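Workshop exercise sheet. Pairs work together: one partner reads the sequence aloud, the other fills in the structure field after running the prediction. Swap roles for the next sheet.
Pair: D.N. / O.F.
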Amino acid sequence: MTISEAQQELLDDLDLFQDWTERYEYVIGLGKKLNPMEEEAKTGDKLIQGCQSQVWLEAGIEDGKVQFNADSDSLITKGMIALFIRTLTNQTPEDILTADMSFIDKTGLKEHLAPTRANALTLMAGQMKKHALMLSAK
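Structure field:
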């Protein structure tokens, strides 16, 4: 599945919900499905700087595809990073670098989040692209 197909699938899933409470529950549920990150892996170099909550992101490459994992001390923030992980994991670094991340605007989340949390979405996308760039150089 391409990144744009995964993004559209996610948007279609969110469209199934009638109100924002249901959408938030769905996003939080995505975060709860992430693989647990070991406490010793939650180091300062993995923190996404500028987020209101602590968000740790790690990335590796396996068979030419990027594998992301993340954790947060906030359920909604963990769900927000899970949106990106769902669309970017198992993609090539090159595809991630050229991906249009404006799909997140189509979720409507930014309009229902505090400005600092909405800004975190941009920071998360940027950090994931930065990891893809570093992995493409290896």
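Discussion prompt: Helices lie at 3-15, 20-32, 75-88, 93-98, 103-106, 115-136. What would you look at next?
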